[in-house]
Amino acid sequence: MKKLSILFLSALFLYGCNTNEQATESEEGVTTDTEMATADETMTTDDAMTAGSKDIVALASETPSLSTLVQALQAADLEGALQGAGPYTVFAPTNEAFAALPAGTLENLLKPENKQQLVDILTYHVVEGNVKSTDLSNGMSAKTLNGADLKVMLNGSSVKINDATVTMPDVAASNGVVHVIDKVMLPPSM
Q1: Domain, as residue range, for 126
Q2: Smaller CB count within 10 Å for the chain: N or C?
Q3: How is residue 184 annotated by DSSP?
Q4: pLDDT digits (tens, 9 = 90+) for 112-171
Q5: Which residues contact 109 (CB under 8 A, 6 or more apart)?
Q6: What is the DSSP letter of 150?
Q7: Which pTM value belongs to this model?
Q8: pLDDT in tens, 46-61
Q9: CATH number for the domain including 141?
Q10: 3-state secondary structure of 51
Q11: What percent helix, strand, coil does the chain show, rounded to 5?
């Protein structure tokens, strides 16, 4: 019993040291997992691990940094399609990617009279099938739902789809996989 108490107190002490160490690291500019979950709008590793039970649209809807994508999907009436059985691979631009478009572009695309143009852009970000990062090879191309091809470029640990960089690969959804990217890709016809 005495050994068990010492073991328990030792574990508490080590846990306390670990917590203090995390706080110290945080003060030095290293972000802890807890701070990432509250400070970072993109999906955390914890989110990505539990994401597999949600469809692509539910996953994007629950990710604050993908709210502009969700708004665009709604304006284009594509939510239902991406909630279907799939599987689909979505290259999901962040809010920052949409904000980087020339001034007024997003607002113009969201207008009802430009719905087809928005559909063309969004379907250029979707590939049929469940394509994970391990399935990609340098120079390969993938046909999008838009009908145009995307080009894959690998450089060490960096993955580019056309000129967009994958910032978070392989987020599992119940009907496919999402790769978060840092740029809105425009189809060749635009």
Answers
A1: 48-181
A2: N
A3: P
A4: 999 999 999 999 999 999 999 989 899 999 999 999 999 999 988 889 999 999 999 999
A5: 72, 75, 117, 118, 121
A6: E
A7: 0.72
A8: 444 344 578 899 989 9
A9: 2.30.180.10
A10: helix
A11: 45, 20, 30
